Each structure stands twice: as C-alpha cells, then as structure tokens.
Amino acid sequence: MKENVVVIGGGVAGMEAARELLLLGYNPIVVEQQDHLGGHVAQWNRLFPDISSAGDLVRTLGDGITDANIFLETKVTFVNRLQNGYLVMLSNGVNIACRAILVATGFKLFDASRKEEYGYGVYDHVVTNADLESWFNGNDSDRFPAAPKSIGFVHCVGSRDLKAGNSQCSKVCCITAVKQAIEMKERFPDARVFCFYMDLRLFGKKYEDFYIRAQQEFGIQFIRGRVSEVGETLEGRLQVKAEDTLSGKPLKVQLDLLVLMAGMSCNPEVAELARMARLDMDSDGFLRSRDNLGGINESNRPGIFYAGACTGAKTVPETLAEARSAALAIHRYMQGR
Ligand code: SF4
Asked: I need a surface site. Which of 101, 141, 201, 237 has the fewest CB within 10 A?
C-alpha cells in the first residue's frame, strides 16, 4: 500500500512535487482551492527568458500526475497532530491520515490599487503585469488601447516598499518587465516603451542578454527613477511624473498604457494553516524555513515540508527545483534517514 502525502496547493510547485512523489512510490493527494491546477503560471502567457509557453509547462506537469489524487475547489479545514503523523481534514468531508505534508501554497500578487499614486482602478489604461499576460492570452479588454504610441512599465510595485509591508525584492518582475516590454514592442513596433526602475535585478542565466537585446534591438528606454504621480490629460492620455535619478531631472511623459509590475506578496490564507499546524512564519507573512541554506524545504514541525513561493519570492525554475528537492526530503523523512 502506497503511503499518503498530502500536497497543499496545486500550482507548479505542488504539481512538480506530486509528480516526483509518484515516481518515488508514494500516493500524493493534491488539494487545490481553485477549479484548475497550475496556479499563477496557468494565467501567464509566456515565460522568460526563452519566451516558452506557460500553458505547455502546466500541461506537461499535469500529464505527469494523472495517477495522483487531486481535489479541486477544496480547502484544508483542519490539521490534527497524530502520534505518528497528521490527520488532514478537507472541506469536501474527506479526512486523510499521513506521515508527511507538503505545503506549496504559493504567493498572492500585490494589490496594485494600494499604491494610490499609480491610479490602478482609477484610470482605465493603468494595468498590471498579470492583466497584460491575460491580454496576451487573448482575453480582450478595452483597457488596452488599439494602437498605443507610448507605453510605460513601473518596476517594484509593492516590493522593496516598507510602506506596502513588503521590504523584499520579488526577484521576477525586472525580467518580466523586460520580457513584456519586448513583447509590446513586437506588437507595436512604432511605440516608445519606457521602463521606470529603482535598480535592475537580473540575476539568471541569459537574463542580461535579454536586457541588452531590449535596449539594442528593440530600443526600449530604461529610466532610473521612481514614478511619483500618474494623472490623466484632457485628451484621456496618462500623464506620468517621475524623477530621472541619474540625470537628477524631473521628468514628465504622456503614455497610452502604464503597466505596473506588481510583486509577490505572501498568501494571506497561509496564516490560518500556520495556526492550525503550528508553523513558524516570517515577519513578512511568508512561512519560515528551518534555515535558508540546507533546510529551505523543512518547517519547524516534523513531517511538514515546503516548496515554492510559500517561503518567499521564487522564479519558476527555482520553484520546480525546490519541489523536486522537497519530494526527496519527504522520501528521506519517510525512510527515517
Ligand atoms: S525584481 Fe526588479 S522590479 Fe521586482 S522587486 Fe526586484 S528590483 Fe523591483
């Protein structure tokens, strides 16, 4: 009889871990609140730096877990400590006894309307990175002008921002802005495209090449400065005020579309799970790993493991690698090693 492992969260971390757990001979039971697997990645169009299809990745991961038990639109309602493991109670009335739980609850995209100065929810043509991906996916919206002459991207929206309650860098939004800026330039070659950044954090393989291409091949302008205010002109264009901190000069540009790079915030629902299972949390609301070197997959509780962005901002490749290492850590735990 295969041993149960409850995987909480059916995003790419939970899917990849479940696939690996199946290969290791376990019975992963994936519990997902949404009506689909894939989490945020399932809503994305293309992934950097290869501009590969996010949908293909989710489909490939899904193909690997056809033998797993998957509960969609289901929540964990209680976690009880047993003598040798846990009893996980689900909102569909199913109770599962297991020796190991993997938490892969991911992140929440920062609510850009909280940064009032950018006008998200006030001006139609102020959108987020997620709105733009949805539009790339063919979900049409009149918030996207048919032929924009100028487009801006604002980095660090809700990240590295103490006032917004998140001092951490979200790691993926600089390169996502570069990717989306290039994609907009490909669609609208005559448009001027600006990226307003504090500093660029492009640390992955090929990311720097991508950034150089954005400037040299596509003519995207990177402006080091914070946007201080967004308003609307009488003609309905966006008026953006910023300070170019390299030249020290204030800057005013008119845009037809402004894209806010909303960062990764903690998933607020994880607090309830942490309370039930007595898991430690960090001050920023993410779950706290046993340590941030060799114990990144481990919690403070025996048999409870972590993968992906439930412990902090992660790229997709990092998330997938963590999911595989979490599955291995669970296997070692089950073997008593
Ligand atoms: S990755 Fe870039 S845009 Fe995102 S929070 Fe870090 S510095 Fe800001």
From this structure: 141
